[in-house]
Amino acid sequence: MTRLVAPMLLMLTLGACHGARDADTLMEQARQYRARGETRSAIIELKNALQKSPDNANARLLLGEVYIDAGDAASADKELRKAKALGMAPADILPRLGKVMLMQGQFQKLLDDIKPDPASPRQTALLVLRANAHLGLGETEQARQLFDEVLAKEPDLADALLGQAKIAALSQRLDLATERIERALARHPDNIECLRFKGDLLRLQGKEAEALQAYKKILALQPNNTQAHIDSANLLIQGKKLAEARAEIDAARKNAPGSLQVFYTQALLDFQEAKYPAARDTLQQILRAMPDHMPSVLLMGSVQLAMGSYLEAELSFRKFLDTYPRQVYASKRLAGLLLRSGKTDDALAVLEPLLEADRKDVELLALAGQAQMQARRFAKAAEYFQAASDLAPQTASLHTSLGLSRLGAGESARAVVELEQATTLDDKRGRAGILLAMTYLRNQEYDKALSAITAMERHDGKNPLVQNMKGGILLSKHDLAGARAGFEQALALDPSYLPALENLAQMDLAEKKPEQARQRYEAALAKDKRNVGLMTALARLALRRNNAPEAMRWLERATAEHPDALTPALLLANLYQGAGAKDKALKLAQSLLTGHPADPDALALLAQIQVANGNYEAGLENYGKLAALQPASAAVQLRLAYVQAALKDKAGALDSAKKALRLKPDWFEAQVLAATLLVESKDYTDALALAQTVQHQRPDLPAGLTLEGDIWMERQKPQEALRAYEQAFKMSKLPPLAIKLHQALLKAGKSKEANQHAAQWLQQHPAELSVRLYLASAELSAGRYPAAIGLFESIVRLDPKNAVALNNLAWAYQQEKDERALATAEQAYRLAGTSPAVLDTLGWILSEQGDTGRALPLLRKANTLAPDTPDISYHLGLTLMKAGNIIAARRQFEQLLASGKDFPKRAEVKAKLDTM
Is 169 inside any structural domain? Predict the structure, then answer.
């Protein structure tokens, strides 16, 4: 029994001793851990101390200091402010809070909150903090003055010598920076901050191995120094030693799992390893806690760019540059992104200030050249590419770009010189060789093109692209057998090489062998069963053969096996929309945009389908997003204008149409829309000015005069319209102009001249239908049924399947009590059985002939398809009355009157309702 009791007593005694440790004991233990660099253990001890004594200001202060050691600025700030609230003296708190502000980049806040105090025992520390804040804000002169002031009093102060070294490094005086930091370390060899700066300075000089040794010396002094592990990891990431970097990050995480620097460096490693979602998620955690942590903002922009989230990346880069204007790396990345998004002018606005300061940055010059190329300012592009090429004359890509700019400027000879130089520098004869061959091809110098591609063949003959190019050149030389051999050779190297397959298929189609083309694609697909390009090519081939169902099957298979593939999904959605499968089209377009949120084609497709389905508000929102993505696109602005016009936003529509014209000043469609909107707003002066602009731009074409005539007609001034139309008609006797001229003559009260004009047109163009159909319809509307019948019969003789003419002829026959009315209406119905007008004509003829049984289903369908057409509603109501369905007829007439629409039979409908 005693043998059991003794250990029990020992355990109780030990437990009692442990439990009896007071806050001071725990704090002392924490200090010991801190001295050994075991910050995590120190934090645990201090938290235990604060559990026992929550209001212990000294414990809070010490915990804040340990958090600073761990790089956890947010936690340090929290603890130090608690210590201040508990009565800790400002002289003890402010220097630590200042360090935290520096860690968080809150430089201006530090200057605002921490003022010099000559009476303070910590005045020197406060001045050093303020000097570092000025340094952080780029105010190097103010920083230098403060560091000099401190060193005048304390010549060997490590923090001040470190500050002078930083200033020297910023001004590229690396020898002076090295002298200052070595002086500091000679007096303070174990100063962690000085050792760290020495490592940073060596890294800046490209001495990575020596820099790593400096960080390792810190770890020899403090094995758990989080910052030294992080610095080592960053250096290793830079040197692509990612496994070693991961080990350093893991070591830092063990000691300071909540450190912002650990999170950031992990995100940087994930980015280097192309683990973009992981990097993004980590950066989101940082930015939720510290939205203005600029290194994370910059890295987030790079991650978003890599993931294709271009709008989000642009916002991140711009946020970073708002804080650090003209920072070169961020500016380059933003400019490249803007160029990719088509925002050429915005990209130039970012690049030009940098170019004013530095004309020796090759990448910067190349980006500026690319921007000028995109803006089609080829001479300026050549200037930038030439400057970059002068700095890096052995860079093949620059000679290639310079060649392209020469080509754009129409300088084919100079382009060839640059491309030839690029092919000389590029051992593999890659892009430059292809471009050189294509340039010769464009110049129709086929033998030179063949020589260029033959030279490539010697170096890269097993590249299917080269063989395909060779086939294309031989095809241009009309060597069909040689071309086919080249394409076949490309396929022998890669059986799924689509460009060669497409070239062979084109040759098959030219020889009227579409089945052979289809078999060629299917044979390739049998070897590569999931090849989305081949399935899409088969769909395109089916469309060329007018076989939409087969095309749809191929595209459905392609999108099922490759849900993220853009091209087949775009084609399929358009096919669905064209086939009337609106729900399928919309669902596919929405899914496509989810997978490609920043893709302009996906966004445009969804907007187009939404508008086609009548959802103008959603279409407007997405066209707005598309306009933000493609601000230089006139087509997008015009689409936006049409949707705004449909939503009755005439001012917005006019603004968008004007934007389209600023981007493309001679776009006639945009000019017509803008003029129409101006006329609707009664702004006839600007509308006519626009018409005159069109006339100036196209003096040999009738477009501008026709537009002017249209404006005068809208203004109810047919005489002026007539003069414009007559001038236009002299230029081109197009059917639409013939119709407009006839309408203007009638409006001007010149019926005789109108009839002569019509008769002359019909005599001179006996087989033309559109003017004949217009004249026949005009006679029908005027109630001149015999004349209308004569014209419609002549149209039907020319075009027996013209449903519009047959329908109107049937209606005219019925008005004349001609027994041919029903048979003619039946003909129209067989041709266009879903047309509301055709359904109404046949239904009403049947109703008037007493066959309400057949008439009612036709008229109901017509009314469903065109519920806002009063004549159809009226015919349905009367037929319901005839059929004895008085209740339904009353309801139909009441709905017709409630619609508020004016129509000739309104009084008759009211009278009938009074009798029902």
Answer: no
What does the angle CA 194 – CA 196 – CA 198 come to, to the nearest 5 degrees?
70
Looking up tokens 């936690």, which residue turns up?
A: 75
H-assigned helices in 866-903: 870-882, 886-898
Same domain, 50 and 16: yes
Domain extent, residue 807, equals: 766-832
Both 825 and 841 in one domain: the answer is no
How far apart CA 196 and CA 814 sit, in angstroms, is: 100
Instruction: Out of 806, 832, 858, pick the residue that ends a domain.
Output: 832
CATH number of the domain where residue 21 is located? 1.20.58
- Output the six-digit token pair for 554: 């191929």
The Cα–Cα gap between 364 and 302 comes to: 18
Cα–Cα distance, 208 to 890 (Å, whole number): 92
For residue 197, report the phi and psi dihedrals to the nearest 5 degrees: -65, -35
Looking at the domain assignment, is residue 311 inside a domain? yes
Length of the chain: 916
Q: Tell me, rounded to whole angstroms, the distance of Cα 669 from its chain centroid.
A: 25
* pTM summary value: 0.52
What's 537's domain CATH number? 1.25.40.10
**Tokens in use for 357?**
């300061």
- 3-class state of residue 486 by DSSP: helix
Cβ neighbour number for residue 138 with a 10 Å cutoff: 11
Interacting residues of 296 by C-beta distance below 8 A, sequence separation 6+: 264, 267, 283, 286, 287, 290
Q: Flag whether 541 is in a domain.
A: yes
Q: What is the dihedral of CA 264, 270, 271, 277, to 10 degrees?
A: -100
Residue 39 and residue 8 share a domain = yes
844 plus 907 within the same structural domain: yes
pLDDT in tens, 827-837: 999 999 999 99
Helix (H) or strand (E) holding 553: helix 548-561
Residue 846 · residue 858 · CB < 8 Å: yes
Which of 304, 312, 353 is CA-nearest to residue 332?
353
Taking the C-alpha atoms of residue 505 and residue 525, their distance in angstroms, rounded to an integer, is 14
125-139 per-position pLDDT tens digit: 889 889 888 888 878
**Residue 784 and residue 796 in one domain:** yes
CA distance 805 to 426: 68
**What pLDDT score does 409 carry?**
47
CA–CA separation, 744 and 484 (whole Å)? 59
Give the Cα separation of 704 and 434 in Å (integer): 44
pLDDT at 847: 93
Claim to verify: residue 789 and residue 841 sit in the same structural domain: no
421 pLDDT band, cuts 50/70/90, is: low
Please report whether residue 804 resides in a domain: yes
Please name which of 150, 190, 142, 188 lies closest in space to residue 167, comparing C-alpha atoms.
142
| Total count of domains within the chain | 5
Q: What is the pLDDT of residues 474-496, one digit of tens each?
A: 888 889 999 899 888 888 888 87
Tokens coding 747: 């409006």
Nearest alpha-carbon partner for 448 in 423, 424, 416: 416
Q: Give the Cα separation of 283 and 275 in Å (integer).
A: 12
803 in Cβ contact with 835 (< 8 Å): yes
- What 3-state DSSP class applies to 361? coil
Local confidence band at 564 (pLDDT 50, 70, 90 cut-offs): confident
- Residues 123 and 125: their CA atoms lie apart, in Å, by 5
Please give the single-letter amino acid code of residue 479. D
For residues 908, 909, 910 and 914, what is the CA-based torsion angle, rounded to 10 degrees?
100
How far is Cα 698 from Cα 692, in angstroms, rounded to an integer?
10
- From 540, 562, 584, the end of a domain falls on 562
Structure tokens at 198: 């020495």
pLDDT, tens digit, 9 for 90 and up, residues 11-23: 222 333 334 467 7
CA distance 475 to 463: 19
**Tokens 């004016």 correspond to what residue?**
902
